[in-house]
# Entry
Amino acid sequence: MKPYVCVTCGVQFAPSDEPPARCPVCEDPRQYVGWSGQSWTTLAELREDHRADIREEEPGLTGIGCTPSFAIGQRALLVRSDQGNILWDCITLLDDAIIEAVRRLGGVAAIAISHPHYYSSMVEWAHAFDAPVYLHRADERWVMRPDPSVTFWEGDTHPLADGLELVRLGGHFEGGTVLHWAQGADGRGALLSGDIVQVVQDRRWVSFMRSYPNLVPLAGDDVRRIVARLDHYEFERLYGAWYGKVVAEVAKAAVARSADRYLAALDGRDD
Ligand SMILES: [Zn+2]
Ligand SMILES: [Zn+2]
# Structure
């Protein structure tokens, strides 16, 4: 029995003798099946030709990615806290180098993930660090490897520690979640957004989509609700899901301005 990993989305499945017949995450209209058809790997195979790519993002925040890029290519973020570190989002690769580096930074007290595209090998991480995984209940059906470490939360907010709060924005996924880190950006606040709020190429702006690879936009009401919910939080900086995808300053105003531009485009108005 092996826990197979989908090559296109990087999600690890419950152990099976044969590779699963299909990947529901990739067959969902928000994703896609790889051009050569569904294919599978394992974490053991991934460790043979992928290495950790660990970078300090700012004091108290460390990026954990892998090179070469695998599947969707996101990096996770380790937020350091006196009350225990939080791993925000997750990657498929987990090897001795990553485990050692994370232990040196104080380990992981809890894992929280923005949405199913980054569930990756969360159960391996949970077992390695003896940490619970917090996922929003609305996305429960996308968990491909059920495990006692997975804890579902409900509603719109869930505090993880002082100054660290999960906020459900919905949008891209019904349970789409961001992490507000009050101490981030020298105490001015940071928002860790996965791709629920997506940093775009012009990094003074963000965008919102139902599907990024297939370019399906989000409804205007969803965008308005996201901005209204974020109005309760202060954040100077916004970290997207990939290295470099960061709105470095005045990020809260950038989100509001980007939402206005987006809604104007939906309505056919010039911005
Ligand atoms: Zn997949
Ligand atoms: Zn996504």
